[in-house]
């Protein structure tokens, strides 16, 4: 996935690479194909549930966690971590906004 992709474009691209129609993929993940169409076209009122995103990711070989983040959601495993450190999160995010070079450094180190 590239940094400028949306949830919908990522799913659509991977679905097509697997030669699935929307109907086929929707059936595999047990959702209505019209809902899958809305997801792919970024026309949902809210992000799909984590379980739906994971099911789609598994069928089209995408990283589940990356797809969840791309949807604007936070994976449940990360939510638990954030809850454990809730008191430090406002300062942490404020620092990242005020010092984007720190974020860049963290992201570069995480790629290693």
Would you mind describing this structure in some detail?
The protein is 67% helix and 0% strand. It has 112 residues and is mostly helical. It folds into two domains: 7-70, 434 Repressor (Amino-terminal Domain) (Orthogonal Bundle), CATH 1.10.260.40; 76-110, no CATH class. The longest helix has 11 residues, at 7-17. The model has no long low-confidence stretch (mean pLDDT 93).
Task: Write a compact overview of the structure shown.
The chain is mostly helical and about 110 residues long.
Keywords:
112 residues, mainly alpha, 434 Repressor (Amino-terminal Domain), 2 domains, 67% helix
Evaluate the radius of gyration. 16 Å
**CATH topological fold name of the largest domain:** 434 Repressor (Amino-terminal Domain)
Percent strand equals under 5%
Report the uncertain regions.
none
Which class best fits the helix and strand makeup? mainly alpha
Tell me which CATH architecture of the largest domain applies here. Orthogonal Bundle
CATH superfamily annotation of the largest domain? lambda repressor-like DNA-binding domains
The largest sheet is: none
Tally of DSSP helical segments: 8
Report the count of strand segments.
Answer: 0
Give the number of domains. 2
Overall shape: it is elongated
Give the CA-CA distance, first to last residue.
17 Å
- Average per-residue pLDDT, rounded, comes to 93
Order of helices and strands: HHHHHHHH
CATH class division of the largest domain: Mainly Alpha
| Helical coverage, percent range | 55-70%
């Amino acid at each position: 996935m590239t940094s400028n992709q949306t949830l919908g474009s990522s799913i659509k691209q991977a679905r097509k690479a697997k030669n699935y129609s929307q109907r086929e993929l929707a059936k595999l993940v047990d959702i209505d194909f019209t809902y899958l169409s809305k997801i792919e076209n970024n026309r949902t009122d809210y992000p799909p549930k984590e379980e739906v995103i994971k099911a789609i990711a598994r069928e089209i070989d995408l990283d589940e966690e990356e797809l969840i983040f791309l949807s604007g959601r936070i994976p449940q495993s990360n939510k638990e971590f954030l809850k454990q450190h809730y008191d430090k999160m406002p300062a942490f995010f404020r620092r990242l906004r005020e010092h984007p070079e720190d974020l860049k450094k963290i992201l570069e180190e995480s790629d290693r």
